[in-house]
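Mods, move this if it's the wrong board.
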Amino acid sequence: MQASDRQDIHSYYPNKLLASCFSNKIDNKLQKSLKGRLNNLIGKFAEYQLATDIRTRKKFSLSVYFSGIKDTKKLNITDVSMRIKFQRSDGKELEIDIKAESDCKRIVLIEVKKWKTKVGVQVIRDFWEKVEEYSRQNKNKKILPAFLSVGGFSTHAKKLCEDRQIGMAERIAYL
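Not the wrong board. Structure tokens:
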């Protein structure tokens, strides 16, 4: 290899357009990843806000937060937990976003979705499966299910919530 060839190699720079496209692809992947992480944190923060507010209230009806609640008896919350994991009999792991226990053996189970889109029927069915399984495992407790969907509910999802007596809320306006 001649000296002039080495100089050509050292002075060669990749096509700027190619480098720019490659950089944009990396930037787009990174941006999508960061956006996903941010959305996850926003959802967790919504759960945290609701759980914290529930902890601070004394003797309240669940209708303070959710519409469609048939049980109007006041709650005296003694314990609030987030991200409760439990298993079905077949070993599948399930998770409830917020669990609030009252001193009168009632447990509020809350699912939180902070999506831009409306929650559909399948998401409500999935939540209802968790509620039923939790109820089977806690037969001596009355379970009060509730769902916070910041993006709203589809018409069919609302109907399903009403049929199953799942409390509904579309915003965190009570904080």
